[in-house]
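Consider this today:
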Amino acid sequence: TYSFAKQYQLKGKVKVIPANIIVKGPKSLLDQINFLETNPKNITNISSTKQHILPLKNQQLKSVDYGLHAVVAEIPAEKYTEAEIILPVRVKNMPFGYVVKTFPSEIKVTYNVSLANYELVKPEMFLIEADFAATDEIINNRIKVKLMRQPDLVSKVKLINPQVEFIMRKI
């Protein structure tokens, strides 16, 4: 298992080196092997990309040559920050012949983003909707809003106010 220092997160994927190991031995024994495990290791407080040596679990099959006794796990890390953005609420599936106005018409959204990608995040990458077809989400002139789209650059997206009031008026 691994965990990051405050304000750091995984950048991409953990890389295991080598990704494959050639195992030699009698066919009857090799047919029993589907994967190899490493010994458990807790790696904590990660604040930069580092390589960690992970010993392979003690192999039970003595007639099998595993070639090596450990692999390297590279855990890429990057610093992130919490950012916020104000987004418009898009109304979807309004009843025919009606106009709907929401209060507020915009919602604050917070998210985590790496420092390297901070400037790349734009409001049009997100979509917030109030769907009037979902009648179970309408209570006392309030409707739930949902995050329908977010960029891959962000994580831990949170709507500060997941409901809005609305007024429906006949055209």
Summary: The longest helix spans residues 27-30. Helices lie at 27-30. The CA atoms of residues 80 and 116 lie 8 Å apart. DSSP finds one helix and 15 strands in the chain.
